[in-house]
Design goal:
two-stranded antiparallel ribbon; about 180 residues
Length: about 180
């Protein structure tokens, strides 16, 4: 035996020999302790369930049938078995009876609507109009005085909204011109 194996408990030696028999030679020492903890917890759970079954049957002590029932219930509760092959084949036949819908799109890869993709615009910019400065106001008045009298002045025009921000959106994935 190697150094340090003499002071190992019997259960730890069993776990170590199980690992060696399965071809596991390189592992951390705490793996043995983790397996022991799992092993002890499983045994305690099974024996606790067996005691409950024994008490339910009004038996004075736990017997082999109680332990078998506890193990079986633990296996049934912990692990689920896949359905039988015949059941799966029948399900596949029923599903495959329904034909697939015809493709509406033409050639190429069918894509979801643009609103459902990551490349659709997802933000808006509010661009406020610039306020007129006093100098710009004077220039406008000069243009109106010297301009064509048949053209309506800016003051008389009511069809343009005043100080309304413009909303602009850009797609994220779009390439910028260089």
């Amino acid at each position: 035996m190697a150094e340090g194996e003499e002071d190992l408990p019997r259960d730890a030696k069993i776990v170590k020999s199980l690992l060696k028999s399965m071809g596991v030679d390189d592992y951390e020492p705490r793996v043995i302790n983790q397996f022991l903890e799992l092993w002890y917890r499983y045994v305690v759970d099974v024996l606790t369930d067996a005691q409950v079954y024994s008490e339910h049957a009004s038996k004075p002590a736990i017997d082999c049938d109680d332990i078998k029932l506890a193990i079986q219930s633990k296996v049934n509760f912990s692990f689920s078995q896949p359905p039988a092959r015949e059941v799966l084949l029948e399900l596949a036949r029923n599903r495959n009876k329904i034909p697939l819908p015809k493709s509406i799109t033409g050639l190429g890869i069918p894509l979801p609507p643009e609103r459902d993709t990551l490349i659709s615009p997802n933000y808006q910019l509010a661009i406020p109009k610039k306020k007129r400065t006093a100098q710009a106001m004077e220039e406008t008045e000069e243009d109106e005085e010297g301009g064509d009298p048949s053209q309506p002045s800016q003051e008389g025009r009511t069809d343009l909204p005043q100080h309304t921000p413009q909303r602009v959106s850009f797609p994220i994935g779009a390439k910028r011109p260089r």
